[in-house]
Amino acid sequence: MVVEQRQIGGAAAGMASRARCTMIACLAMRGLALVFVLAACNSPGYDPANPGRVSCGCNSDDCYEAAARLDAKGETAENGEQLLYYAQCACFDGSTGGCNTVSHFAKDHVAACKADKNVRDSCAIAGFVYRHGVQVPKFNGRSFDRDPVASSAAFGKACSAGAQIACSYAHP
Q1: pTM for the full predicted model
Q2: I need a labelling partner for 66 at 20 to 30 A (CA). Which of 89, 100, 105, 151 fits?
Q3: How many whole angstroms separate alpha carbon 162 and alpha carbon 172?
């Protein structure tokens, strides 16, 4: 009897082991497929094919900190899009500071560009604001819808003022 139990136990254990291995291999393959799909579909940043779509690759604290580090270097044509991205993502993830930052950032640079102040940087940043749009809760300030015409005009002013990064966006 003991031998028979071992054989049955061994056969059952072998089948269970094979079933577990098959299930684990199947789940692993599904997991890898999911990782590849997510990596292909949700690369962090703005979607080049749809500038109004952003995939955030950080949580609110990390995004807010990244925005603060960039802001400490100065708000320039060269880092404006990244600043916008990090502050917008922090806001989307529930950071009040991120929402306040992106709201003021957008409003201030759009106003400065319209007033022809610091045209190189303010108009490049205003161009990114209009290219991507900025969405914040009403109590944090004004949202900006995507506006390709305003974006192109702002980038054109920035390009004329020497912001090379803006030149490729000036005339879509």
Answers
A1: 0.74
A2: 151
A3: 18
